[in-house]
Amino acid sequence: MNNRRHAVLALLAGTAALAGCASPQVSDYTQQRPQLELDRYFNGRVRAHGIFQKRSGEVVRRFTVVLDCHWEGHQGVLDESFTYSDGTTQRRVWHLTKHAGGRYTGRADDVVGEAQGQESGNAFHWTYTLRLPVNGKEYDVQFEDWMFLVDERVMLNRATMRKFGISLGEVLISFTKE
Fold first, then answer.
1. Phi-psi category of 123—alpha, beta or left, where left has phi over 0 and alpha has psi -120 to 50?
2. What is the C-alpha separation between 46 and 174, in angstroms, rounded?
3. How far is CA 135 from the centre of its chain?
4. Which of 65, 70, 23 is nearest to 155 (CA)?
């Protein structure tokens, strides 16, 4: 009887541990407010401030971004102008498409293939592969972004970066709609 009780407790502990490892789903945020409508938020001018942290937590780059965004029907353009703490600049122009059910797809010149996203409640989950130049070489890095609308003007973004499934670091961004 005692062995059976231990087996049941071990099974329950294992199940709880596996459940704790489950990744969040965008649908987990369906009831969260304010309601995010990505095409409404990213329409007009948005400013952002961010940092890049290595997986050790060390902040290695700071940046600001000015986004000029507009939509025509289900097609949107997010024109991003980055200024980094070392004085370098970069531009990325996203071409987004809004689909039924809060789903979005997107392309940009340095994005490999097509980005996929889903909004629900106050959240947006966005995945894509970005081709990053590093010391004269280019590397394809997988990004997983989670954006959360805090209020009508502020949205926070946490992006994890991976290569071959190994964490490279995180990007944290605060967006402010003008």
1. beta
2. 10
3. 25
4. 65
| 21-24: long-range pairs with CB below 8 Å, 24+ | 24/146
Query: Which ranges of 26-166 would DSSP assign to H, the alpha helix?
Result: 38-41
pLDDT class for 104, splitting at 50, 70, 90?
very high
CA distances, 90 to each of 35, 100, 110, 132, 145 (Å): 31, 32, 11, 12, 19
pLDDT per residue as tens digits for the range 116-148:
999 999 999 999 999 998 889 999 999 999 999
Task: Give the chain's mean pLDDT.
Answer: 91
- Residue bearing tokens 């990744």: 23
Token pair, residue 103, equals 């789903």
The SS3 of residue 64 is: strand
DSSP string, 99-132: -GGGEEEEE-TTEEEEEEEEEETTEEEEEEEEEE
Residue 94 tokens read as 């996203």
